[in-house]
Structures are given as C-alpha cells and as structure tokens.
Amino acid sequence: MEKGFLELISPEQFRGVLATFSRLTSETLPLEGCLGRYLAAPVASREDLPALPRSGMDGYAVRAADCFGTTETNPSYLDLAGELDITEVSTEELQPGTCVRVVTGSSLPPGADAVVMVEHTADLGGGTIEIRKPSAPGENMMLAGEDAHAGQTALEPGIPLRPSEIAFLAALGILEVPVGRRPVAAILSTGDELIPPSATPRPGQIRDANAPALAAMAMQAGAEPLRMGIVPDSLEAIAAALAEAVDKADAVFLSGGSSVGVRDLTVEALSLLPDTELLVHGLAVSPGKPTILARSRGKAVWGLPGQVASAQVVMFVFGCPFLAHLAGDQAAFTRPRPSVRAVLARNVASRQGREDYVRVRLEESGDGGLKAHPLLGKSGLVKTLVQAQGLVRIPADLEGLEAGTTHQVVLL
User: Fold this and answer.
1) Which of 40, 87, 286, 356 could lock 178 by a disulfide, CB 3.0 to 4.6 Å apart?
2) How many CB atoms lie within 10 A of CB 389?
3) What global pTM score does this model have?
4) Could you give all domains of the chain from N- to C-terminal order, each with its CATH number?
5) Quick one: residue 142, left, alpha or beta (phi over 0 = left, psi -120 to 50 = alpha)?
6) Model confidence pLDDT, tens digit, residues 75-127
7) Does position 3 have pLDDT exceeding 50, yes or no?
C-alpha cells in the first residue's frame, strides 16, 4: 500500500491511472452476438464493395459528357440502348449519345459514369429519352470499391460495433469477428445498516439502493454484473468478500466504507489482500471525493462512496468508461458522450480546486432551445437522480457558473 490516505488527485490524473489497466482478452463471435462489443483486431476486406459500379437511383445510366449544358429549356436527347435488371451485368460498352435504363442497385455498363434520375427525364417513345438536367461524373452512382477495397482495412480495432458496422461486415461476407470480452463487474455493498430491497427496514436500517443501480449501470456499459450482496462492517468480512470478488470478476465495485471514519474499513481490508496496491484514495471531484482505486492481482478494485448520488455520479463519469476500456474501447476515456447544449437557469456556486458535476433537469425554452435547472440536493437523496436528465461539469478553476450562460449537458 503506497498511496496516502485521502491524497486527492485530479480527474485527468485518475483517468491516466485507469488507462494503465490492461484490456481483456478477445473472443471470436458470430455477427449476431457482436452488437455493442468492441472490435479487437483490424478487419480487412476480401473483395471490392461494390464489386461493380452501381446505380444509386432509378433512372438512366449515361456518359456525363453527353448531358453537359442540359437544362429544362434546353434538354439533351439520348438513344435508349436497352435496360438492365438489377441482377443483370452488362459487358457492352455504353456508346456516346446513348443511355441505358437502370433501377436502384443495378450494375452500370462499361463507359457509363453517371445516372440521371428518372424524375429529370421523359421517355418520348421510339427509343428517344429526353434529359432535362445535367450530370457530373459519379453522380447518383456508387463506384466499384467505394465502400471497401480488397486487401485494405475495412474496420479499425477498438471501435464499437453498432448495427451499421454489423451491416457493413455482413455486406463483405464476414460472418464472425474478434471482439473484446465482456467484463464481469462484481458489485458489493457494505454497511451494518443495509438490508436487501426485498426486506422491510426496522429503525436504523435502509434498503440497499446502490447495488441495483451500479449493476444496471454496469450493464449499460456493456459489462456483466455479478451481484455479491451486502457485507457487514467487519474487517475480516470485507477482506473475504473482496478476495472472492477479485477471484470471480474482472473489476470490483464496492460502495460504502471509503471515507475517513471509524467504520470505514475498505482501505484496511485491501491491505490484507495479497498482491494488492492502493493507487488512489481521494478524487478532487464533487460528489465523489472519497473514491478508492486499488490494483489486486492486476484487477481494479473500486471503493465508491456510500451515498447514492455520489456512487452513481462516480460510476457514470469514471466507472462506465473504465468498463468500456476493459472491453476493448480504445477511446473509452476520450470518446464524446451523448450531450446537448442548454442555458443554465440559475447560478451555481462551486469550490475552486475540485471538479463539480451538477445534476440538472432539462426543459424546452420558449426559443426552441433547452434550459438546464440545477438540482442541488444532498448526496444521500435519490430524488435528484430521478429528476435529472444530465450532468453539467464545473471545471476546478471556476468558482461557479452564472445563470443565462450556455453549457454542455452530458445526458444520463
């Protein structure tokens, strides 16, 4: 245990420490199991896509030079040289002054370098097509290899596989790919006062709201939560629970027992685990100052604050990107998160030297924009989290934000 007790570090320093943890090993999965996973290796295309130039519209394949200067009042007239069904491939060169009728997706005849939309044409009969709009080379068509070239990298590693990437891989005939393994996140809660959500609290007891919330957030981050229950305020019990969690999971999130107090035993329990190093005890953020991070047998062990707002904000801002990092996201700590711009509805004070994350409620303003209403409540209250749609960050070098100023709101 090398790090001091509550030696605050900045969020940037904390992310730097998180980035030192190795990503998990990869596994190869069929496409139907890859949604939300991160590509673990570059994927090269085995073929050109499209294999041939194809039409992007219903209309006529033309030589663009035959339509230069064309207007509604000065149309061009081309001879119809035939038509191509979507399954047909022409090997006959398109001659100057001629066109071929095509549908969306049709391959184009050699020599054609543009497609005129059918809306800008008229079939005059007798094999004559009137063209009423000029065309530029490449217009309304897909070039051979425009999506992917054979032998070249089609997708880079570390990107999340969305439906669009899965469609791209399917179009290339790539039916399975290596992806980062889904992290297993152990979730524990500490405190003699805690009882399961299914129980009825007696005086002095409260239901454990952190474990369900943290498990849900881990799932949103692409991890598999492992609920390990409530641990009493006992040094031996906490140490045993942490050791079991490190055995079973890729990352451990323990809520409670992280601040400076006589019942806060997380740091001491970590000192009892073999091959364990305390990396961080204290973040210059609010809420979340007493956050702990340790490395045990190469795995991250988090000590999150026990207060529900603090635990969820730290998990959202730092824990969820960390789980994405383990899963193979190479931009986990820099990838922009979904956000909106909103005008602050009231002044918000902040203490210099710490980074504040203010929960806000969003509403539409009269000018079509958004207004952000700060929800300033105690970190033990759940209501402010229920009402909030986002977080506004106050940098550590500011003493607050003024009403009427516009800020980025990261959506929860």
Assistant:
1) 40
2) 18
3) 0.88
4) 11-25+181-326 (3.40.980.10), 26-49+147-180 (3.90.105.10), 54-142 (2.170.190.11), 339-411 (2.40.340.10)
5) beta
6) 999 999 999 999 999 999 999 999 999 999 999 999 999 999 999 999 999 99
7) no
